Amino acid sequence: MTGARPAFSRRLRHLAAAMTIGAASAFVSVPAFARGPDGIADIAEKVIDAVVNISTSQTVEAKGGGSGATPQIPPGSPFEEFFDDFFKNRRGPGGGKGGDNGREFQPRKTNSLGSGFIVDAAGVVVTNNHVIADADEINVILNDGSKIKAELVGVDKKTDLAVLKFKPTKPLVAVKFGDSDKLRLGEWVIAIGNPFSLGGSVTAGIVSARNRDISQGPYDNYIQTDAAINRGNSGGPLFNLEGEVVGVNTLIISPTGGSIGLGFAVPSKTVAAVVDQLQKFGELRRGWLGVRIQPVTEEIAESLSIKPARGALVAGIDDKGPAKPAGIEPGDVVVRFDGKDIKDPKDLSRVVADTAIDKEVDVVIIRKGKEESRKVKIGRLEDTDKAKEAAAKTKDEPGEKPVTQKALGLDLATLSKDLRTKYKIKDSVKGVIITGVDGTSDAAEKRLSAGDVIVEVAQEAVTNAADVKKRVDQVKKDGKKSVLLLVANGEGELRFVALGVQ
Q1: Which tens digit of pLDDT belongs to each residue from 217-247?
Q2: Which of 121, 197, 330, 427 has a 20 to 30 Å separation from 98 between CA atoms?
Q3: Which of 115, 180, 234, 482 is catalytic?
């Protein structure tokens, strides 16, 4: 055994040497594309002076809630300055610590940092709306450290974009927008910004996905990237390898608050159009069709004889909107708008919003299985945040229900004055009222409930419960697997629901 150790040691040394040589050979043989593009440094050097930090301040008031203890932070901690500012430097009336004995804090200023980029050497900067929202003062900090007060030109909350303007004290570097529609999956992109107040940070990654809808707004079509994006990167540019801006870094998905490779940027095609309008008008002027739309599910597509399922189903028409005089009706499915294919409602919302006001466009619809074309003069969308509240519905009173027919797991009755009063149904709503729903039925799963009114069955109006039963029986006879209902709530708001009939 004593003689085995040196021999074993020699074998280990030989093996280690072989591994070292092998590793070196493997390193030399790694192709260039596997290490990433060589031009990142050149691009960063070219555009870095066009990327700025955005500093904002806001005056806030807060109320104390008792004395409370100040958290103890170890000396030299990177968070020491933050806690000193947050706890020790806040003084209540009379110079006491804020919050002592329930006293009110004095008004104080809070600061925040974000990113932006110069698109015009005259001093025009693009950033995110959430970076400058509610700010009392906005400053642009250039790459050389110069700090200049900026003015707000305009914001668009729906795309979370803002345009600022400042007076330059020296010549500036500006960057141009590229074509985000030409981005390919796997293409290299570069993010530059101010993460955690570390200005001028450069990270690189690839385009992970395009046209991402993550339910942040009505016009979601984000670029997804794995380039590291963190707090403070918001409003900064996403560059392609030509040094063109292809997106504005806006948000991340992260359980930790730091980058886990899920970053999202507003595509430059959207940004360029918004920036142009904000500079011209100080606001967004979006196109308006005047329809309420919903997705075309597989069941709805089968009911309407549409193959494959596609388009945006018109569930309602605004009486004052452009669609009504053009002859578009509830039940129509928009599959093409101004030469662009419509795959889903989001497609239609985006393309209509981007259309010039008063422009006449061709709209292709499918009605009863056949394609038809309509000409529509686009109106202007009034940007309002008013939300309609759903009408409150009374609970079913005990006793016998006025049921006159059963179909599709529904208890149905002809609308009467008493039923209108009980379920708060407007006089303008016509059809057959649902007075009960089988909890195990497809109707319950599709969220139909007592008080809903069936207006149409298979795109034909119904006025009594017998009409519904008759239409459903006909659909079964025709061999279809589902029937399409047009349903209204008490306020008259419409939606389509497809129910199985087998």
Answers
A1: 777 889 999 999 998 999 999 999 999 999 9
A2: 197
A3: 234
Per-residue pLDDT tens over the stretch 58-109: 776 655 444 444 444 444 444 444 445 544 444 444 444 444 444 454 566 6
pTM confidence score: 0.64
What token pair was written down for 482? 């589902």
Q: Which two tokens stand for residue 427?
A: 């006089």
160 is catalytic: yes
Residue pLDDT, tens place only, 144-163: 999 999 999 999 999 999 99
Average confidence score pLDDT of the chain: 81
Q: How far apart are CA 316 and CA 200, in angstroms?
A: 50
Q: Which token pair is 45? A: 């050097």
Domain 180-281 fold is Thrombin, subunit H (2.40.10)
Look at domain 48-67+83-165 and name its CATH class: mainly beta
Helix, strand and coil content of the chain, in percent to the nearest 5, comes to 25, 35, 45
234 an active-site residue?
Answer: yes
Q: What is the identity of the amino acid at 470?
A: K
**Residue 473 is a catalytic residue:** no
The CATH number of the structural domain formed by 287-380 is: 2.30.42.10
- 112, 115, 130, 347: the catalytic one is 130
- Active site residue: 156, 160, 332, 452, which one? 160
